[in-house]
Amino acid sequence: MAILLSTRLHSSLIHRLSLTIWGLFLVLLALLSLLTYVALWLGSDQVVPVILQRMVQLKAQANEVQLLQAQASVLRLRGELLQRLDDADGEAAQRRFRTLFARSGDGLWRLRPELLDPQRAPTLYLHEGAQGLTASARLRAVVSYELLREQGPALVPPFFSAYMDFVEDGLMVYARGIDWGGNADARTSNADYPTMRGADPEHNPERKLFWTPVYLDEQAHTWMVSVIAPLDWRGRWVGTLGHDVSITSLVESVTAGQDNAAQQFIMDDLGQLVVYTGWGAPLAPGQERPQMPAQQERDLELLRQMVQGTRSESGAGRTLDGRQWLAWSRIRGPGWYQVLVLPQERVNGALRLGLLAVVGVGLLVLLPAMWWLRRRVRLLLAQPLRRLTQAVDELGRGQAPTPMRLARSDELGRLANAFDIMAADLAQQRRWQTTHAQALQTEVEERRHVMQRLQQERARLLALLGAMHQGILFVDTDRCVSYCNARWRELWVLPQDMTIVGLPMAQVLAEVRSALVNVERLDDYLRQSQTEAPPAHPLELTLRDGRTLLLVRHPVHDAQGEPMGQLWLCEDMTQQRQTAEQLIILAERDALTGLHNRRRFEEELERFFREAARQPQQAAVLFFDLDEFKYVNDHFGHGAGDMVLLRVATAVKALVRESDMLSRLGGDEFAIFMPQATLHSAELLAERVLQTVAQTALHIEGEGQSLRLTSSLGIAHYPEHAGSAQELVAHADTAMYQAKHLGKNRWSIYRPESDMAQAMVTRMAWNERIERALAGGLLRLHFQGVYHAHSGRLAHLEALVRMVDEDDATQLVAPGQFIGHAEKSGKILDIDRWVLGESIRLLAAHPQLPALALNISGRSLDDPQLPGFITEQLAAQGVAPERLLVELTETAAISDLGDAQRFIDALQRAGCTLCLDDFGTGFASFAYLKHLQARVLKIDGLFVRNLPREPDNQVFVRSIIEVAHGMGKLAVAECVEDAQTLELLRGLGVDMVQGYHLDRPRADHPALHGDGSAGILPA
């Protein structure tokens, strides 16, 4: 074999020529490689330092961007903070301090819990100190809080935090999501922080900005460095301003993408390492850095001497021992050095790689040339012969050979053409056989794919039907069940072991006949289902367990319209029916008494008058209310009043006919609509109502007594007294007031000649009198102090409206005489706006005046423009919103909870403080607290009067105070009439007190003249 191969090589001109060319290329490649290696060796001393210095300069410039940005940010913050401190209003800042911060039980001052928001605002811990907090510390706390709250979220990131240290031992810091104040305790101190030591005038007399050493932050688990600017104000050192900057990017700059040969690190101007390649990622708290090998420690010392000896910002060179290349560049800001160390062996390795690259390039040139030569031989001779041999073999194995198609006129070309003709004839015969077989295979594959898709669709359909909340049953054309899902079994409570598929539909429904209330309806529906036409509407069935099921069927047809069976659907409608019934009850019934409400009463009256327009009818309306009902609410509370209304409603309901409608219109007003009633029958019912109410004994729990109330009732008859529903109601109301004018506890028929009776005259007279008082400036404000319960100091004033008597200017009309008329006529809206305007102007004229509280009527809650009016007045007068405290009575707020919530939300957005007045008088006071987000709760005076002698009231007052404190609210007790009550309230923990024992309402209150100590009580 070897002899034969040698003979072929020597006898082939192509092979000999190829060997000659290969030898020439190998000699040239060796010479080129040698020259290239010498040139690279000589040029490395010039190129390597330039490349290394440029690399380390780029790294240093990339790392110093954030550090320089931090320096500039700290200097800017210090300038802006000092400007704000110089411009700050001291008194306003002290008030703002009390609003923002509170002293915790461990003695530290922190941000109030309700204002705590670490995501958008800074947090604080500040020690009280032996002498307490100075005004300067409070001012700096307020100004630095506002500055970091405004600018902190924009600075964090890129920086980890922005903060200000207090010389008084405290820290105001913003770090997104971290509550520094909450994490501090009584032992926490910044007195020995590097930030404070470096800013101390003894250590930093030039007051220069400086950088702290690198440290591991325990909370963020990352390495940090801080840039600190000393803060001097008004000639003395008061703290620092600084940023914490994460040096994660610096760690990554010396660790990412490095191999074991080259090393990078960062060291400070003293030669101490800041970041080193071998240290890797930041350590966990308490974990120590690994020790450097001894040889690297010695090399590092040589590098320190080389960098520090040059004293240049950047440079590059080889060490004295020639083993390593060194490049460094200064990082502006903290003054660190970015250092890159490359061993000489690494350079030598690069030279060797260069030599290998030259050899590789030479090979890349030689190989294509040899490939081209061999290709020409294959194309001209070897390939045609090989193709012809392969074609003969394929034809011998029964395969169709590929046509050669040699466009040549030599012997090989003619031989190839003859062979192609012969092979084409054989291939034509085999082709039609292959085509037929492929067609059969394609048809089989298509049918297999169709079957797979059908099985997948069936599986998805069964899963969908099984997961539906409706019961589904499919009945075939033989009236037998072919499918049933699990929900159908659940709805009809069928046994799990019962086989449903295959049973007749009639037999399946027969299993549930005993559970139905209306079996006849199911039988009719089944008879109807025997036809193809669907039923007119679904069937609703009631089960004996109280559930309601909805049954409906649908015919099913195939694509040709032929019937395939029926689809039966069943759905549980119990909850929907119960919800609908409950909504109807809520819409038409009074929540307290269960009687029809005003809306349902008016709808029934309107319906009656529509029918009366087509066919003459008669009817009567009886209006009645309880005489002196206000006495019950004022003396026994609204809970007792609700009980009285419920007893009266129950008693009167037993008197009316089934066709009559008894309604509660609101408060203590009731109405009875009697369709098809004569005036005489209305008079009889009126007499019975009066007697029943008068004879109903009402026991007041906790009072040990019973009382009896009387009522006044008015009658209006249709068509005698009115021509429309509105007139009939208005005339019945007028008749009721006519009965009251005649002495109460009586009924009266509407008399047109008495329509302008004394009650109406009095009401109109008061309306005109109130109008004249508003136009003529006859309203006055009196003020009563509200005091802190324990310190006795004045907390704020409450503004109370009075009216000057037109006949005697020296006399004042008490609000109890005209407020009720003003509320009924709507003039209370004008009075509320007058009180608001006067109070805000008074606050603007007396900047030293504390907050001013004023009452808003329930009618004003319906005025959507009132919050905007208050905001505009505050802005126009330049009054801080927190100086205005708006009081809403609890009963007014809960009477329309939606309007009250909108009103309270609007005022809180404006910055005003909300107080819920007369708290405790409502039917469910505590239940409404979660809806009425008031800041202050004023306990109703009903529970405070005689408090020392009423243990039940003491329990109730204590509960209100504890609930208020638990929800972060303040509790105020009014009607404090003696010292014993005051002491008892202090023991119960009330926040503020008000009453005649402390202060009486007066127009010329001492607080208006700047006397902040006026009315101070003994603590």
Characteristics:
alpha+beta, disordered C terminus, 1019 residues, flat
Topology:
Layout (H helix, E strand, L loop, with lengths): L1 H10 L1 H75 L2 H11 E3 L4 E4 L11 E5 L7 H21 L5 E6 L3 E5 L5 H4 L10 H6 L10 E2 L3 E3 L4 E12 L2 E11 L1 H8 L7 E5 L5 E4 L17 H17 L3 E5 L5 E8 L4 E8 H53 L14 H57 L3 E5 L5 E4 L1 H7 L12 H6 L8 H11 L9 E4 L5 E10 L5 E10 L1 H15 L9 H17 L4 E8 L2 H8 L1 H16 L7 E6 L2 E7 L3 H17 L2 E3 L4 E3 L3 E8 L6 H17 L5 E3 L8 H19 L2 E10 L5 E11 L7 E2 L1 H11 L2 H18 L5 E6 L9 H12 L6 E6 H6 L1 H14 L2 E7 L5 H4 L7 E4 L1 H4 L6 H16 L3 E4 L5 H10 L3 E2 L26
Parallel strand pairs: 25-26, 28-30, 30-31, 31-32, 32-33, 33-34, 34-35
Antiparallel strand pairs: 1-2, 2-3, 3-5, 4-5, 4-9, 6-8, 7-8, 8-9, 10-11, 10-14, 12-13, 13-14, 15-16, 15-19, 17-18, 18-19, 20-22, 20-25, 21-22, 23-24, 27-28, 27-35, 28-29
Helix pairs in contact: 2-4, 2-9, 3-4, 9-10, 16-17, 20-21, 22-23, 23-25
Give an overview in words.
- The chain has 1019 residues and is an alpha+beta fold.
- The chain is 48% helix and 20% strand.
- It has 29 helices and 35 strands.
- Strand 18 and strand 19 form a beta hairpin.
- Residues 7-14, 281-286 and 1013-1019 have low confidence and may be disordered.
Q: Quaternary state, please?
A: single chain
C-alpha geometry: flat
The biggest sheet, with number of strands, parallel, antiparallel or mixed sense and barrel status, is: 9 strands, antiparallel
How many β-strands, per DSSP? 35
Mean pLDDT: 80
| Number of helices, counting only DSSP H or I runs of 4 residues or more | 29
Q: Could you name the ranges where pLDDT drops below 50 across 5 or more consecutive residues? A: 7-14, 281-286, 1013-1019
Could you say which structural class the secondary elements and strand pairing correspond to? Answer: alpha+beta
CA-to-CA gap between the ends? 124 Å
**Gyration radius, rounded:** 49 Å
